[in-house]
Amino acid sequence: MTEKQISTSLQLFDSVSELPDQIQKLMHKAVEARLTAYAPYSKFKVGAALLLENGEVVAGSNQENASYPSGLCAERTAIYAAGANYPDQKIKALAITATSEKHDVLEPVAPCGACRQAIAEYEQKQNEPISIYFTGTSGKVIGVKSLLEILPLAFNNKFL
Ligand code: THU
């Protein structure tokens, strides 16, 4: 048996104002999208905004359902909207923000496992990484240059 270490590279920003201009704007779009969240059950509101290579921004927010599993996260709402409406446009970046009506969400909120898997599919499809930036309400932001930084050993279509 051998043991192998794998490492992840995270970019830590103390405030949104430290982000590159284009990403600051994208984060503001994510904040706007968060206001459209339909989260009557969890009271946890998430906004996501994708930057496409043509400069368009595709936004999404979490959409819940009385039948809980029928709801969908903000990140997948956005990425499937981009796939459906701009199938030939590469996705350059994704900004994510979350708040709760029940408690402070200070620390950056990383995308859930199912959303990571969905984003991985689009990196594979476009054969180019998607940079991801996520935040809470403290202003701190975590960035990664590729989804694979937060989903090591990802399952993908090469196994099929
Ligand atoms: N949620 C997201 O929108 N994105 C995530 O990455 C994690 C969770 C949503 C789903 C649900 O509406 C609420 O947050 C609580 O889980």
From TrEMBL:
Source species taxonomy: Bacteria, Pseudomonadati, Bacteroidota, Flavobacteriia, Flavobacteriales
SUPFAM superfamilies: Cytidine deaminase-like
Molecular functions (GO terms): cytidine deaminase activity; identical protein binding; zinc ion binding
CC annotations in GO: cytosol
All copies of domain CMP/dCMP-type deaminase, residue ranges: 21-155
Keywords, in A-Z order: Hydrolase, Metal-binding, Zinc
Cofactor(s) named in the record: Zn(2+)
EC main group: hydrolase
CDD domains: cytidine_deaminase
InterPro entries on file: APOBEC/CMP_deaminase_Zn-bd, CMP_dCMP_dom, Cyt/Deoxycyt_deaminase, Cyt_deam_tetra, Cytidine_deaminase-like
Active site: 75 (proton donor)
Residues holding Zn(2+): 73, 112, 115
This protein's name: Cytidine deaminase
UniProt catalytic activity: 2'-deoxycytidine + H2O + H(+) = 2'-deoxyuridine + NH4(+); cytidine + H2O + H(+) = uridine + NH4(+)
Listed EC numbers: 3.5.4.5
Positions that bind substrate: 62-68
Function: This enzyme scavenges exogenous and endogenous cytidine and 2'-deoxycytidine for UMP synthesis.
Biological processes per GO annotation: nucleobase-containing small molecule metabolic process; pyrimidine-containing compound metabolic process
Record-stated family: Belongs to the cytidine and deoxycytidylate deaminase family.
The organism of origin for this protein: Psychroflexus sediminis
One Pfam family this sequence matches: dCMP_cyt_deam_1
Domain of life of the native organism: Bacteria
